Amino acid sequence: MAGVAQNAHVGRFKRFYERHVETPVAPLITAAGIGTNRKSAAKTVLQQAKRLVELADEMLKLKPGRDAFAVFWYVTCAESISKLEQSHASEDGSKKHVLRFFNTLVPAASRDELAESFTNGEGEPLSLHAGVTALYRVRCALAHDGEYWEFRFSKRGHPTSIATDGSVRTSVSRDRFSAMIVEGAVEAARLLLARDENKRSTGRSGTVG
Fold first, then answer.
1. In the predicted structure, residue 1 carries a pLDDT above the cut 50
2. Helix H segments across the chain?
3. Topology at the third CATH level for domain 39-205
4. pTM to 2 decimals?
């Protein structure tokens, strides 16, 4: 029975990640130790991303159209994954970790796509930094002031306002933004596994026979 439950658990992870990313994820899930008792930072990253992205989805079932609830958990996930990928060594604040996530962990193609989705009220391009900062403020407005009714993700590519004054807009959809969060988590897990393998290789090469 334990084997059946383990396979079902691994299957849920595979289905979640395959819905969000195009690259094969089964080897990564196995290498991270999903479905086993083995502890690893990569495993924690994959668990955290799945947990928080699914929580964002559940919130929108409770509050349809109130996309700030999803942004809250997506941005929280980005911050958490950045910290985990750095082994919590950095003392940077939460905003810096969120910006780092999008600048370094989200794949280049998706990063460029997200950057290109941001414009000002006149339709002129804005930087990735400006757009992500605006989304971070959506999270803070909910967390600190209980405001959740202003922001909507784009539908059918029509830009929507992130800032309440209309100075920052985005054409990214919720599904694409959610996928970018998962892509960043996958990259973080890969980096962590590569570091673990490098440490093992260094240890083996340093062993005296």
1. no
2. 2-20, 26-32, 41-62, 68-85, 94-100, 108-117, 128-145, 174-205
3. Four Helix Bundle (Hemerythrin (Met), subunit A) (1.20.120)
4. 0.91
